[in-house]
Amino acid sequence: MSARTTLRTTLARIVQQEDLNFLLTNRIPRRIATRFIGWFSRIENPLVRDLSIGIWRMFSDLDLTEARSTRFRSLHDCFIRQLKEGARPIDSDPNVLVSPCDAIVGASGRVQAGQVMQIKGFPYRLRDLLGNDADAADYHNGCYATLRLTAAMYHHFHAPHDCRVDSVTYISGDTWNVNPIALKRIENLFCKNERAVIRTRLSATGHAVALVPVAAILVASIRLNFLGTDSGLRQGGPRTIPCDATLHKGDAMGWFEHGSTIIVFAPPGFALHDGVGEGTRIRAGEPLMRLPRASLEAH
Question: According to the model, what pLDDT value does residue 70 have?
């Protein structure tokens, strides 16, 4: 075992101690730390860039072999890297709703009595996450999947099916860490954090499918391609933005400027695809949910 591997293993064990991890990633000035990383990661200095990426590699399984380019101007440039053409093939089956991102599947299953699970034993109300009862009603007895993007993963997310984006609601909030250690300690964490509620309608069936990107500590912002602006959502403050953007399955929707979480909600009749469950690793474009067969046959 190399000295580098030994050091990385030792550091990982220290940081993975739950109490220490929680303290290091939550009991600090979260907003200040997030703004600092947003600034620091954009420094275009070769020494700063190389040292930062080197430290990042020590604490993660960062793999740049699929990156479209491995020449980065800054740490931020590496965070938001594009992938080589064809690196994420999109499942073309019209019966399938695909994962919008690379992720580890967290809590998933059915929306019951207006509640979903943050982690086992920690329910939260769907209306608190989405912002109102009307939106939550679309998903009563529906299906959901929590998708956690780790820091080393590809940070872009894509349309899970052919769809039209009706609106985006930006909800300001905190930046708690969204790893399992924090999810076991902070109730209603997703409902406390900054997030965007992206409401879509599937083009073929009209089903309402919502994606909720949730920001976290060190996430400088959530960016959405289809809004046609380079500005982060924070710059406009809490608001609902009407949209009429048509996307094809696999089209780029946006990106995080660090790892975080996307929660996908589908209405009754949808079901998790075979093999998808808590702890599953999934990549953008792979099957996440199955559409109701009757509705597809009707169209």
Answer: 86
Question: How does pLDDT run across 142-175, given as a tens digit for each residue?
Answer: 999 999 998 889 999 999 999 999 999 999 888 8
Q: Which of 76, 158, 161, 273 is catalytic?
A: 158
102 labelled catalytic: yes
161 annotated active-site? no
What is the value of pTM for the model shown? 0.86
Whole-number Å distance between alpha carbons of 59 and 293: 44
For the cut 90, the answer to whether the pLDDT of residue 120 exceeds it is: no
Q: Which tokens in the block code for residue 184?
A: 């076991």
pLDDT at 38: 74
Average pLDDT score over the chain: 86
| E-assigned strand segments in the chain | 96-98, 103-110, 115-119, 122-125, 143-148, 156-158, 163-171, 195-202, 208-214, 222-224, 239-247, 252-256, 261-266, 271-272, 281-282, 287-290
Q: Which of 52, 74, 260, 273 is catalytic?
A: 260
260 is known as an active-site residue = yes
The string over 236-263, giving b where at least 16 C-beta atoms fall within 10 Å of a residue's C-beta and e elsewhere, is eeeeebebebebebbeebbbbbbbbbbb
- Report yes or no: 189 and 183 within 8 Å, Cβ to Cβ: yes
φ, ψ of residue 248 in degrees (nearest 5): -95, 155
CA distance 270 to 207: 10
Burial 114-148 (b: 16+ CB within 10 A, else e): bebbbbeeebbebbebbbeeebbebbeebbbbbbb
Specify the pLDDT at position 84.
Answer: 95
Catalytic residue among 102, 108, 135, 138: 102
